[in-house]
Amino acid sequence: MMEIDYQTKIRQVQDEQDRIRQEIRSVEEQQEDFHYLQQEEQRLYNEIIETSSPEDRQYFKDKGEDSFSLAKKAQQQLEEQEDELKNTKKQLIDKEEELYIQQRKEQVKEKEQ
After folding, report:
1. Which of 22, 25, 72, 106 has the most CB within a 10 Å radius?
2. pTM check: above 0.90
3. Which of 76, 111, 90, 72 has the alpha carbon at shortest distance from 20?
4. Dihedral of alpha carbons 57, 63, 69, 74, sign
């Protein structure tokens, strides 16, 4: 009977690990997409600066700096989210290992009786 309980708990932990892996992949894809967009934005920004009049150039430079600052913050948030998910994944792996250890101890205990 305890065997079923451990198997259920282990399966729940493994399901949570799968969910976390999917979230990590989603964040990685967001980072890749974001990186591509940043490159495209930089290319367009350079093109605008090169083709704008001297009096407009400063305005576009200021707006570009604001945009780059926001992009850096967004990138940091994605990195922090990824780090949190990886920590959660590690905790779940540790929990799964702990459940296996408890299960083995219980099995040995039952055999001794």
Report:
1. 106
2. no
3. 90
4. negative
* Packing angle of the helix pair 54-112, 2-51 (nearest 10 deg): 170
Please give the single-letter amino acid code of residue 111.
K
At residue 52, the 3 state secondary structure works out as: coil
Q: What is the pLDDT of residues 56-79, one digit of tens each?
A: 888 888 888 888 888 899 999 999
- Provide the 10 A C-beta neighbour count for residue 22: 11
b/e per residue, 60-97, with b = 16+ CB within 10 A?
Answer: eeeebeeeeeebeeeeeebeebbeebeebbeebeebbe
Residues 6+ apart with CB under 8 A from 60: 45, 48, 49, 52
